[in-house]
Amino acid sequence: MSKACRTIVHFLHGDILYSSNQVSLREDICKTLFSLFVIVDTQERTLTIRTAILEALTLFNLATLRQTLKDTHQDNGSDFMTRLSQQKTAGNMNEIKLTLEFLTVLWHCEALGNALYNSISSVLSSIIDCLYDDNTGQNVARLRGTALTIFSILERDPRFVFKNQKQEIIWKVALNAGTSDLHVASGFAYYVLTTDRLPDPVSCAEAWDYFRDVLLLIFRRHFCGEDEPLSLLLSPVLCLVLLQFLNKSGPIALDPLVRFIVSSPWTMTLNTDLKMLMEQDSPAHDGYRRVLRERIGAAGKALMEEVGYLLERS
After folding, report:
1. What's the rounded Cα separation, in Å, for the pair 276 and 235?
2. Residue numbers of the chain with a pLDDT score lower than 70
3. Contact 99, 84 (CB under 8 A)
4. What does each C-alpha distance from 54 to 29, 36, 45, 125, 314 come to in angstroms?
5. Beta carbons of 191 and 203 less than 8 angstroms apart
């Protein structure tokens, strides 16, 4: 079964299933993969199968995913969601992580009926509670980034009734992760960017410190190996998040968050690092900083100007 799933992945990467006369076959394969994901036992030996299925699903176009989800839910929707809900407790942490990623694919389809929507919301709510209750365990480390990513997607959906109730928990789960986990930083950054409300000034100050520290680590090339490309991709997003905190704040004299920001010596460090990166040519041999400057672009320049303005006024 694992070889069959990997073969499908190979075909999808090669666009073999996307010729005009393969529409029916493509939908049949996608529907089979949807069902197979929730039917396969959540055991360590089946992890490679479910991983291959998930990779294959991400390679289908959105139209195919939407139609397949509708067909699957019409045919056996109740059994489909019952099995999926059981996986949040029946499997190990790797399996639960895969289930979360599968839920992200489902949500991306933007074709969820109310029954399917409510079932997924319930699963996610219980998972974030588990992450909060076990905030120092190894289990949490495996799930934080994935959970925060899907919550950033849900934040824009007005039907997601848990977002007001879970905001404080989500922020604490993210901030407890520390600054070295880029997957958490990425998920949390997108979550903050999509929210239409910020919590209390103390929580915002903690989040400002967190995102600023991650950005400073990227400036210093702290992240190596496979984390380095992710750090470069994340850098402009971090600039946008920090700008969001500043743009939603009030005057310096009245806003406690702004007063905290301008009083921190690390804000001066951030301003200095941004100027060095944005206003000076990097050495010819420093390809990393050259790429970083290109990636940060307008977001980095806007953050530099805003921070500089606040420091001048303080």
Report:
1. 15
2. 15-23, 41-45, 73-92, 110-120, 134-142, 159-164, 250-254, 280-285
3. yes
4. 13, 10, 16, 22, 51
5. no
Q: Rounded CA gap, 13 and 23, in Å? A: 16
Place of tokens 């010729």: 19
DSSP state of 221: T
Between CA 107 and CA 109 the distance in angstroms is 5
CB 77 within 8 A of CB 31: no
Please write the tens of the pLDDT for every residue from 139-193: 666 678 878 887 887 777 776 666 667 788 888 888 988 899 999 999 999 989 9
| Spatial distance between the Cα atoms of 286 and 215, rounded to a whole number of angstroms | 18
Is the model's pTM score more than 0.85? no
Q: Please name which of 99, 89, 112, 86 lies closest in space to residue 37, comparing C-alpha atoms.
A: 99
